[in-house]
Write a structure and sequence with these properties.
binds magnesium ion; 165 residues; Rossmann fold; alpha/beta; 6-stranded mixed sheet; binds guanosine-5'-triphosphate
């Protein structure tokens, strides 16, 4: 079966682990347990009748993001750039991380995810900022690891981009 490696990239506590846990196991926890190193999960999805096995690499938040961590990215077919919509700084961090990823493994398909969409009353990212990002032809998807909203779409869209790439 076709296998594709996908990395979760983003500032700490943006919801990388929670998105995978909801996507793969349909589980959400309010408790924050930071990821130590890297955790790998798998899920098979179907795209236009083709089975594709996604190997999901969940990396620890970026703070000590150094050469060692960049090496985790090797062999990736795509990545999910995760932003916490309730913390504006995580968007800036995502822009920086994208540059680092591209320096390390080149331009590959990615999706920008605005996570925690269930917490709209604490939302810190303005519509004009999202519009500016969309102008660059990026794919932006709003998600909630709590409700599950948008998550299926993220991986389906990314896998499609990878297969078409
Ligand atoms: N309400 C809400 N909380 C979320 C959502 N996604 C994640 N959280 C919470 O945010 C916190 C951090 O989530 P994690 O999934 O551990 O974040 P992470 O990006 O894996 O963090 P690191 O591994 O430290 O980089 C946890 O308390 C989660 O319960 C969401 O969509 N909605
Ligand atoms: Mg984590």
């Amino acid at each position: 079966m076709l296998q594709k490696k996908i990395c979760m990239v983003g500032a700490f506590a943006t919801g990388k682990t929670s998105l995978i846990s909801q996507f793969v196991h349909s589980i959400f926890s309010e408790k924050y347990l930071t990821t130590v190193g890297v955790k790998i999960d798998k899920k098979t999805i179907e795209i236009r009748g083709n089975q594709i096995n996604l190997i999901l690499w969940d990396l620890y938040g970026e703070d000590e993001f150094q050469k060692v961590r960049m090496s985790y990215l090797r062999g990736s077919s795509g990545y999910v750039l995760v932003v916490d919509g309730t913390r504006r700084t995580t968007l800036d961090k995502a822009f920086q991380l994208k540059i680092k990823v591209e320096e390390s493994i080149g331009k590959i398909p990615f999706i920008l995810v605005l996570n925690k969409w269930d917490m709209t009353d604490e939302w810190e990212i303005e519509t004009y900022e999202i519009d500016a990002i969309l102008q660059q032809d990026w794919t932006v998807i709003k998600t909630s690891a709590k409700s599950g909203q948008g998550i299926e779409e993220v991986f389906q869209t990314l896998a499609s981009k990878i297969l078409n790439g």
